[in-house]
Amino acid sequence: xxxxxxxxxxxxxxxxxxxxxxxxxxxxxxxxxxxxxxxxxxxxxxxxxxxxxxxxxxxxxxxxxxxxxxxxxxxxxxxxxxxxxxx
Length: 87
Prior knowledge:
Blueprint: H1 2-14, H2 18-31, H3 34-64, H4 73-86
Helix pairs in contact: 1-3, 2-3
C-alpha cells in the first residue's frame, strides 16, 4: 500500500497539466480509500498547492503575452510599397 502512495505522490509531483492533476486528485479521493488514512492531509494540501500554482502561472503568463495587432508590420510595409509604386 505504501508503494501505491509513493506512486501517486510521484504523479502529483510530476503533473504538468491540469488534466494530470485532476486525474491524480480523482485517483486520490475516489480510487484508493486506504490512502485517505495514510496521506490524506499531505496529498490534499500538495494537490491544491500544485493546482493553485498552475492556475496562477496560466493567469500571469496569459496576461503578459504579446499578441500581434492588426495591421501588422508586414501589412504596413506592403501598403507603403504599394503607395510608392503609384506615385
